[in-house]
Amino acid sequence: MIKVSENAKNQAIRLMSEEGQVDYFIRVGVKGGGCSGLMYELEFDNTITETDKVMEDNDIKVVVDKKSFLYLVGTELDYSGGLNGKGFVFKNPNANRTCGCGESFSL
After folding, report:
1. Which of 3, 57, 60, 62 could make an SS bond with 76 (beta carbons 3.0 to 4.6 A apart)?
2. Strand, helix or coil at 101?
3. Phi (first) and psi of residue 105, to 5 degrees
4. Average pLDDT of 4-33?
5. How confident is the model over 40-84, as pLDDT tens digits?
């Protein structure tokens, strides 16, 4: 399960609304790269495939391909705004090491 914080929910709804993507959901994934070995992917999407795992938290639908899901179990998607805010932030309990920007990790 991937959790969605209240801040992430509000920001996602705002962005999808601004972009006219009303029936879209959040797609989260993991790919190789970054300074720690693996990088998070985050986008709005409206297509679900056979290899996707679909879940919902805090009234937000989140879709993850099954391979990425293994790296993301228990992760919380948050949003950090303000002067030093980073935007969407992943709080992944499975990550042993993360980079300074928080966009890549290793297990």
Report:
1. 3
2. coil
3. -155, 170
4. 93
5. 899 999 999 999 999 999 999 999 999 999 989 999 999 988 777
Q: How far apart are CA 35 and CA 79, in angstroms?
A: 22
Ranges assigned E (strand) in the chain: 3-4, 25-32, 38-45, 52-57, 60-65, 76-80, 87-91, 97-98, 104-106
C-alpha distance across the termini of the chain, in Å: 18
| pTM for this prediction | 0.83
Q: Which two tokens stand for residue 74?
A: 């228990």
pLDDT at 43: 95
> Is residue 89 pLDDT above 60, yes or no?
yes
Is 29 within 8 Å of 65 (Cβ atoms)? yes
Sheet arrangement for strand 97-98 = 52-57, 60-65, 25-32, 38-45, 104-106, 97-98
CB contact at 8 A, 30 and 98:
no
- Assigned token pair, 21: 């993507």
